[in-house]
Amino acid sequence: MNRRNIAHFFVLLLVILFFSVSSQLIFGSEPDIFSWPVYTGNEGHTGFSLGSAPSTKQTFWIYNGTVGYPSVPVADNLNVYVGAVNGRVDALNATTGALIWSFQTQPDQYFEHAPYVATGHNLVFVCPWTETTVYALDASKGKIVWTFDAGYRVGEKAPVFSDGTLYICSIADLIALDASNGTLLWTYPQPNGDTSFSLAVSNGRLFVGHTSIEEQGKFLALNSTTGEQLWSITL
User: Fold this and answer.
1) Predicted pLDDT at 206
2) Same domain, yes or no, for 220 and 147?
């Protein structure tokens, strides 16, 4: 192999590495053109999809539920999941719109934010508006896999899932759970206030905006594995 071919080889290798790293940064850890597991697309909240936009305005199906659906729908490769005003979660077949299963939380609940689908793990995470309970459901059957009582309301912010860990935001703490069984991994206290933004995870860091009446807003970065604060900015 002459020098020119060697140079071309290394240029090609660098291009491949660049796009491999870039795709992880842009699309999150599990890019999938057929799923939309959280409101903004992935755990990094990029809002980006690898799929093509619709070429027509054709309606494929309509599902007429018995109650309203205030939450944004999310989807995996098979189903669409949406929270209802009566604290119920419905799973619909993404191709036909047929109801697959329903799961009822406390009947006086509703959903401010969408569920989170752990694509490839067969789990749907549910945080009703005023409950202190986090539910992990079997995505194919709607049965409870585990629950976790956070002690404080958890439904004001959407959960986020990354690398086997579920991150939730109660009105008192940021909480990291083992997504497979609900075991508590760590907590990070929220002094004197609530979070203003949804959690986002990227490259081993958990990002969160924090504000309260008593103090200025802050933007924090935590180690996603340990919960240790890496840095903060006062806004």
Assistant:
1) 93
2) yes
State the Cα torsion 188-191-192-193 to the nearest 10°: -30
| CA–CA gap between residue 105 and residue 93 (Å, rounded) | 21
**156, 152, 151, 67: which is closest to 111 by C-alpha?**
156
pTM above 0.90, yes or no: no
**Length of the chain (residues):** 235
Residues contacting residue 208 through CB under 8 Å, at least 6 positions apart: 169, 174, 195, 197, 199, 200, 219, 220, 222
Distance of CA 169 to the CA centre of its chain: 12
Q: State yes or no: pLDDT of 26 exceeds 50.
A: no
Which domain does 17 fall in, by range?
1-27
Rounded (to 5) percent helix, strand, coil in the chain: 10, 35, 55
**Residues 12 and 116 both lie in one domain:** no
Same domain, yes or no: 1 and 42 = no
How much is the CA Rg of the chain, to the nearest whole Å? 20
Compute the distance between CA of residue 141 and CA of residue 206 in angstroms, rounded to an integer: 31
Q: Lowest-confidence range among 14-23, 75-84, 221-230? A: 14-23
Rounded Cα distance between 130 and 51, Å, is 35
- Give the three-class secondary structure for 152: coil
Residues 111-132: pLDDT tens digits? Answer: 767 788 887 899 999 988 778 9
Mean pLDDT of 66-84: 83
